[in-house]
Amino acid sequence: MPETLAEPREAPHAEALLPTDLLAFLACRTPDAWVAWALENPELLLIDHAQCEKKAASTAMSLLYRYVDQPLLLTKMSQLAREELLHFEQVVNLMEERGIVYRHLSASRYAEGLRRHVRAQDPERLVDILIIGAFIEARSCERFARLIPHLDDKLAKFYRSLVKSEGRHYEDYLMLARHLSPAPIESRVAFFAECERELIASPDTVFRFHSGVPA
Q1: Coiled-coil regions in this chain (predicted)?
Q2: Most CB atoms within 10 A, among 28, 74, 83, 205?
Q3: 11: in domain
């Protein structure tokens, strides 16, 4: 398999690639231990990345089907689904070039750990799902930025483009949550920020793109 990861190059600090509001949105940075774990598992990193893109498209499509009376949501989720599927295709192509066989992986505990706190009734249910979407996209964006200095030129260029697109997705999810909520969302954002921080900082036994630190 061609070399996937490389020694860190001279590059801007990860935070320099990210909007300040996105960094403020997350309650913690990705631990160095996760970055080291990712460098030890380049195949799993790309395979699970592909699965994350596919799941993101599926989430957007499910919202399209469920909330047909929300024009702004329909427009944003349609755009997001198309972009996530394009990213999925791009990751699969990169894997093929590198001799990595795409296979099924069990899901990490990350998304389910957030979604178990979703309220049962709409519109609160939808608002929570959108806030969680914002956290997933923001964390993905932050992790791409953390990895870029360690990647070969082609993968680094691809991940740099994803920092921009995932940043837009984070903004869209948060904007929709504010737009569709009957009340201010700050307390729910703070609640999910703490849930997300615990998932990122706590030990995991299996590496995934959104896993915590190695146990």
Answers
A1: none
A2: 83
A3: no
